[in-house]
Amino acid sequence: MAAAAGAAAAAAAAAAAAVTAAPRSPGAPTAAARARRLPPLLVLLAAAAAGPGAGGAARLYRAGEDAVWVLDSGSVRGATANSSAAWLVQFYSSWCGHCIGYAPTWRALARDVRDWAAAIRVAALDCAEEENHEVCRAYDIHFYPSFRYFKAFTKDFTTGENFKGPDRELQTVRRTMIDFLQNHTDADRPPACPPLGPIPPSDVLSLMDNRDGRYVAILFENNSSYVGREVILDLLPYENIVVKRVLDADEAFLEKLGVSSLPSCYLIYPNGTRGLMNIGKPLRSFFSSYLKSLPDVRKKLISLPEKPNKEENPEVVIWREFDRSKLYTADLESGLHYLLRVELATHRSLAGAELQTLKDFVTVLAKLFPGRAPVRKLLETLQEWLANLPLDRIPYNAILDLVNNKMRISGIFLINRIKWVGCQGSRPEFRGYTCSLWKLFHTLTVRAGTHPEALDGTGFEDDPQAVLQTIRRYIHTFFGCKECSEHFEEMAKESMDSVKTSDQAILWLWKKHNLVNNRLAGHLSEDPKFPKVPWPSPDLCPACHEEIKGLHSWNEGQVLLFLKQHYGSDNLVDTYAADQEDAHEGGAPPEGGEQERGLVSPEKPQEEQRAKSLRPPSVLPPRPDLSQGLQLGLDGGLQSASRAEGHREVEVAVPFLGMGFSSLDMSLCVVLYVASSLFLMLMYFFFRVRSKRWKVRYHRLSV
To answer: Does the structure show a pLDDT above 80 at 286?
Structure first.
């Protein structure tokens, strides 16, 4: 059996290598490559042998393997609400390059302070997971990574306190955690956390006379030092020892105890003997290690992240073969799906500059997006609706209702699952959304250059920077990776104003994309199977590359021709693109559904169990929907929607009538009915009063 298992694992590894290496060959797969295509069974075996880390969902942190507490939509509220410990939670996105790069620091921090778990815990929640979209909205997470503190014994729902450190280095975050603990009052301080404040020098003498059978360590330090508080928390799970700290002791008192430098530790033994600790260096690790090694100092059981009892089912990645010289509709539409339904949806409402940025960006999309007709019609409908909207602030749920086609408008559609093709990565956290966003931006600049008439009447005509500036404002306002948006803003400030023609706009974005690739080459977010190299590569565009005096040089004229061809409509292929009948009506995300990502669906019982766990905790602010909140018609009017039960009754009754009425039509009928009734009543009273006046006047004349 062992030999058979080893052979199977070897075959699986070979299969996995073949699968991941296949897409690197330029151009469409040859007949020989197709002949070498692996059967589906080997693909499944490869993913199973690789384990959940390689084939599973994008997880930067693993419960039971890392010291990080891994939370999700079903556990975050239960963990942070009325907890006996405080929490520091990182809300991140697994596609965010900065989040990927920061993961080793966060894991190292969690390991470093794992002994503090009874007082404060380090956790993480992935907002890119579909099951967590709703809970990240509830916690007002707009950018990644976001760090939130939650105090102990918090009963009411709160979105937490933002991390306010000058940087995110391990030592800075650790010290900010201490400051946060000290901000607790005596009433809500974690019970396992001893007082972290200093004791007066006068209390040292009483500690010397104490005989309670425990060690007493007294750390003398200056005001700016965190060593004493760190050592107190390091010794939190240890018995038979107490750690105190003293500030601003006078020199005579320190000299009497033999303390000549700060920080220093004075140790009182259980038998009453005492003296200065002699350690190699006055550092936190030296103090903590020495105190933990004292006789009879024992570690208590502490609560640590547990490995799930049930092994995670490895999700099997089905690789989609693709041609690197083509642009795929599935990538652009998957990017739009995430942009409209997830990234923008983190904003509860839009007003002012944010609303204007959205209007301008949707206008550019509606006029320049080259995809399929139902998607273009959806964008055009959204653009027209936003343009005619007479409101200064709108809830984003109203936009979501239109994107999800709650109005049942014929002929509009947007896929409701992610399906990467040209943007596939060797692991789920690689490439994906950021890749599709770059492709979308390149496509928009190229379309603006090749079809300038598309922008007529938008206010963007005759402005070569219009599309770039709109992209710039979108990234600055809405893009989830804050550090990425700051880098893009720096590049824009540096040279975007130099763009004078639409061709220069195309080349400007290409140059900056290569600059970003160069900066991220070798970064933890780089996919090893798709290294970040100057693009287009020589095999895609030989004419783009030259050598001048032995140095590589770009032929920008040829690059421009290549970009216009590569991102043109003629190069867009619908292979792997989802059909409308494959999705739910109107393209709305299915209830409790999950991103496809090319994953084999689990069995039905598992799916039902997962759907149940996706529901956010009942104490979270409920997400308002069209039937419970504001309903905005396509004419820009704001309609009052009925409650959910009445809304369902209308939707059940309408098909029976066979007239195709929507809830908006029904509400308009009610409004018109009420208005006409009021008008008739007014007319009745008007003529009634007039007739009385006429009778009085006629009576006087007759007399």
So the answer is: yes
The amino acid occupying position 266 is Y
Are 221 and 156 in the same domain? no
CA dihedral in degrees (466, 468, 472, 475; nearest 10)? 120
Q: Is 99 among the residues known to form the active site?
A: yes
Q: Say which CATH number the domain at 219 has.
A: 3.40.30.10
| pLDDT tens-place string over residues 295-306 | 999 998 766 666
Range of the domain at 125: 69-183
φ and ψ of 564, to 5 deg: -65, -35
> 628 in the Ramachandran plot: left (φ > 0), alpha (ψ -120 to 50) or beta?
alpha
Using alpha carbons only, what angle is made at residue 690 by residues 685 and 691, rounded to the nearest 5 degrees?
A: 100
Check which CATH number belongs to the domain holding 515 and give it: 1.20.120.310
Strand partners, 239: 298
Q: Active-site residue 96, yes or no?
A: yes
Q: 447 by DSSP, 3-state: which? A: helix
DSSP 650-676: HHHHHHHHTS---HHHHHHHHHHHHHH
Alpha carbon distances (Å) from 325 to 27, 112, 475, 568, 694: 6, 47, 27, 12, 87
Catalytic residue (choose from 96, 127, 435, 481): 96
pLDDT of residue 663: 52
Mean pLDDT value of segment 467-484: 92
The answer as to whether 160 is a domain residue is yes
Model pLDDT for residues 343-387, shown as the tens digit of each residue: 888 888 899 999 999 999 999 999 999 989 999 999 999 999 999
The 8-class DSSP code of residue 66 comes to B
pTM, 2 dp: 0.64
| Average pLDDT score over the chain | 79
Give the tokens for residue 653.
């009754």
Total structural domains within the chain:
3
Q: Which of 99, 127, 435, 481 is catalytic?
A: 99
Last residue of a domain, one of 183, 213, 233: 183
Q: Specify burial of residue 696 (Cβ count, 10 A radius: 0-12, 13-18, 19+).
A: exposed
